[in-house]
Amino acid sequence: xxxLTRKAEFSSAHYYWNDAxxxxxxxxxxxxxANRNGHxxxxxLEVTVAGEIDPVSGFVVDLKQLKDILEREVVSVYDHRHxxxxxPEFKTAIPTTENIAIAIWQRLDNKIPNAKLHRVRVYEMxxxxxxxxxxx
Amino acid sequence: xxxxxxxxxHFSASHRLHNDAYDSDRNRAVFGxxNNPHGHxxxxxVQITLSxxxxxxxxxxxxxxDLDAFAQKNLLSRFDHTNLNTLDAFANRVSTTExxxxxxxxxxxxxxxxxxxxxxxxxxxxxxFDYAGATPPQPGTT
Lengths: 136, 142
What we know:
heterodimer, A: alpha+beta, Tetrahydropterin Synthase, Chain A, 5 strands, about 30% strand, B: Tetrahydropterin Synthase, Chain A, 5-stranded mixed beta sheet
């Protein structure tokens, strides 16, 4: 079993807000992230897949193919978008780094041929990142 | 759903690797230039990995502001711009980054809002250390 990791980047806007709460409660819990005009980040995505090496190609997965899947399933949907307003899964879920990692897992799961999705790591910034391993 | 949250903190400190039970020749032989009597220092990066279920009302494993406040009080204010050898934690232990990892793990075990998975410390860009308590790190998780 070999683990292979591919990076991708996207830049998006978001804010944190729970409609069930008062503006004061949102401000208390989310602080400056609750600014309704939004703010943004340069996100770095690291997708790790696990698989066996194909003896013919020497690949676990074709990196170009993996790059194209990340582009189609994630980057083209998230990049230069407002996550709350333009990405369907964040109509209901707050676009925290944790929820972005889960959402990207759900977008990629079973889409990568010949390999198993092992980990989705999302960096909101170099000092803050979330990992999702598909755990319930 | 269970997610791992990783937060990195930075502090600068001096230390000296030295064991009072050894004579000076043996200290020098074991610890090399790290035994310099005047000490030396590093910019440490501490990476804390916490896990927990994502709270649907916040989208978070834990509130980052709470974690940062905990780290400020219990990590940065105690370690930043100090000489590690003068701290209680290293009164009877060599101030290696291995021992520092265990001490910082012990500190973050008391963070109440999420489960501590692992402490990863970069002493320099070439040296890093991981401590996960009794549980060994999983492949591809650092």
